[in-house]
Amino acid sequence: MIAALLVLALAPLHAFTAPRAARAATQLFAAPPIDGLADRLLAAKVASGKTFDDIAAELGFTNTYTTQLLLGQAQLKPDTRPKLEKAVPKIKKEDLDAMMVAPFRSWDDEILKEPNVYRTYEAITHYGNAIKLLINEKFGDGIMSAIDFYMTVGGTVGKAGEKRVVITFNGKFLPFIEQAVDMNTAASPEIDE
Predict the structure, then answer these.
(1) pLDDT (tens digit per residue) in 106-140
(2) Active-site option among 85, 94, 110, 122
(3) 164 counts as catalytic
(4) What is the structure's pLDDT at 193?
(5) Active site residue 188
(6) Is residue 152 a contact partner of residue 158, using CB atoms and an 8 Å limit?
(7) Threshold 0.70, pTM exceeds
(8) How is domain 2-109 classified at the CATH fold level?
């Protein structure tokens, strides 16, 4: 997620494609990664002269989700297609068509070598225990969804006048449940021996 925001057009995008072994396996379930798609989408974005925030405002999405769309890591929905065509007119029809298929969402471990990405990963892992305990204390036994989820990247100015990065995660709380037999609507069949 964060990787998509922080590396953007500055690094080669081969780091965002699925490993070759996974490509064949995913063809049955999702669109296989399309060579060069992210490069072409980002080139069209650059040609538009707009920032990710500009495009996000036109689409009505968060800047993070918009960036994921332009990295081929989120599916373009039919209602959004005309808005994206207007916002970024240099995107080719065949690339828009490719964006309409459920993508193979992936990342390459090599991306963790990128300092911006690694520092974000480090912050999450360093504060992981505290985040878990605070979520449990405030909401109960459960997790924050990364599916019913919003993220934005913005900024503020610190007390000393320095630029500061603000990353907001907003995910639905999903409680763990007791697995009561009478609540199981898809119980496994009994096998008679």
Answers:
(1) 878 888 899 999 999 999 999 999 999 999 999 99
(2) 122
(3) no
(4) 63
(5) no
(6) no
(7) yes
(8) 434 Repressor (Amino-terminal Domain) (1.10.260)
